[in-house]
Amino acid sequence: MKLGSTAVVVTSSSVATLGFPKNYYNKPSWFGQLLKTNMFPHHFPILSSSSSSASISTTTEDSSDAVAAAKPKQQHPWLIVGLGNPGKKYHSTRHNVGFQMVDALADAEGISISGVSFKALFGKGFIGNVPVMFAKPQTFMNASGESVGAIVSYYEIPLKQVLLIYDDLDLPFAKLRLLPKGGHGGHNGMKSVINHFKGNRDFPRLRIGIGRPPGKMDTANFVLRPFTKQEQEELDFMFQQGIEAVRILLLEGLNKSATFVNSTKSMEQLG
Fold it and tell me: What per-residue confidence (pLDDT) applies to 74?
């Protein structure tokens, strides 16, 4: 970038000076690669003079002061994880609505989840101006933490910026619930994730209601059942609400997103 007639060269050391962690630049990560290719000009500070009398000194001391004053706030990416089981056999089952929600969100934002990293299908992009990563662990549900834990550890993502999306038997069908933290509620995928977070439960989660099994149907059989055509239509309607909820979460915060989620009505209620 140019400061009047003074040019600033971005190097690995200056990236660290400007507030970006060294590992974001040095690791073979997507964020570091974007920095290297200069695709993030809006993330660097822009210094300008407010009057003709203001100037930027070329001395080492003044340059350091200018950089320190313009130091941007560090921005970690969000990690959005859908839980489910891999393979066509489980594609449209109740236990895989986490996968479906992430797919719907990625499609809406034009982000491909076609890469494979950390035992997960993986995608990277932006929602608004917020960097995001999508993951669908391919470890099978009960070992989801192996994948999620590895991603969080490698990219050093704060847990408050890790959103888990998964099915919930205790919520009415196609009902959403957004919470800032909590337990696993008996969900094996969440149990695995919490175990790999060393027992830490302080991360947001978006729960998707799938209802309770009818009659005396075994719970394991129920969660692996596919949706009916009518149920899928209700889910598609709910996914649109979920997409908006995630956008609000990333751009405006959890409280506003939770308020939106709690005020939304199902397709059945609107009918």
Answer: 59
Mind listing the pLDDT tens digit for each residue in 120-141? 999 999 999 999 999 999 999 9
- The 10s digit of each residue's pLDDT in 219-234 is 999 999 999 999 999 9
Tokens of 155: 């990219």
Instruction: Give the separation between CA 235 and CA 97, rounded to whole angstroms.
Output: 9
Is residue 95 part of the annotated active site? The answer reads yes
Classify residue 12 by burial, with Cβ atoms within 10 Å: 0-12, 13-18, 19+.
Answer: middle
pLDDT score recorded for residue 177: 96
* Residues counted in the chain: 271
Six-digit token string for 262: 């709690």
211: left (phi > 0), else alpha (psi -120 to 50), else beta?
A: left
DSSP code, position 71: P
User: Do 250 and 128 meet the contact criterion of CB atoms below 8 Å apart?
Assistant: yes
Q: How far apart are CA 174 and CA 183, in angstroms?
A: 21
pTM of the model: 0.73
* Residues 30, 21: Cα–Cα separation, whole Å: 14
CB 174 within 8 A of CB 239: no
**Nearby residues of 147 by Cβ (< 8 Å), 6 or more positions away:** 118, 119, 120, 135, 137, 138, 139
Choose, from 43, 95, 187, 196, the residue flagged as catalytic.
95
* DSSP code, position 227: P
